[in-house]
Amino acid sequence: MGRRCQQCDARYAGQPGSGGCLGHLDGMRLFEARCGLDGTRFSPPVYETVNRLVLPRSGAYLMLVNGQEVFVDSGTAVLTRRGDELRVAHPLGGGDTFTAVELDAEVCERLPRRAYRFRLDDATDLHHRVLVAACRRGFDALAAGERLRAVLDRLAPDSAGGAPRRAATAVAHRRLVTEAREALADGRYASGLTELARRVSCSPHHLSRIFQAVTGESLTEHRNRMRIRAVLSDLQDGDDCLRILAARYGFADQSHLTRVVRKHLGEAPATVRRMLN
């Protein structure tokens, strides 16, 4: 995972997990990692020392940024700034993988000041994964810089959905959505609506309506986006049997997987696999 770099080894020394440097460019560092933290309780607070954008590739966890909770999966990027208070919890277990980009002050200032979480659409996620694959093959500062800019330019604050009138209702709705996303990830995105509603203790109709209102997308759309990204992560890690991956993530068969990937990414799985390896 990544390559050895004395500067990055020194910066990340002592942190749990594994990782490696993808490259340095224009005052920014790219580092890929597999998290070694675990535990369902939030960790003690630490304070950010740099401006850092985390682009998840697999797994899911909870994060507190200055006391604000965010559920992080491959659909959500998180931006933390120097001095932010951070705490994390892994209710589904550790081992999540991600790319960390240390941003220089100029680039960070171009992003919305109050935003700390960003929705990763399908194209942005694929740009990110292709960037990682290209850096693994051999770092080209110009090409990597263009690919990274393509990712940064597409980031938009995650603010979908209308807010309820009462603050307590908004908090309850966000909590329900987080629990549904956790349950989906825990079941490898294969759960049906009735089973999912049972796991979060509400009716299927209520869950479907609230999820759409809070996130701006249906449960089906979210599930398909997340399980495609799980497939992409496995492909990038060396799994290459599409039939096995289709069964692993709840697709009816390989043809179903191919149709869903084409719909979201505009390419067949075999083509995407070549892009990522």
UniProtKB/TrEMBL annotation:
Record GO terms (molecular function): DNA-binding transcription factor activity; sequence-specific DNA binding
Species, as recorded: Actinoplanes italicus
Domain (HTH araC/xylS-type) ranges: 174-275
Pfam families noted in UniProt: HTH_18
Protein name, as recorded: AraC-like DNA-binding protein
PROSITE patterns in the record: HTH_ARAC_FAMILY_1, HTH_ARAC_FAMILY_2
PANTHER family: HTH-TYPE TRANSCRIPTIONAL ACTIVATOR RHAS-RELATED
Entry annotated with the keyword Manganese: no
Gene3D superfamilies referenced in this protein's UniProt entry, alphabetically: Homeodomain-like
Keywords, alphabetical: DNA-binding, Transcription, Transcription regulation
Species classification: Bacteria, Bacillati, Actinomycetota, Actinomycetes, Micromonosporales
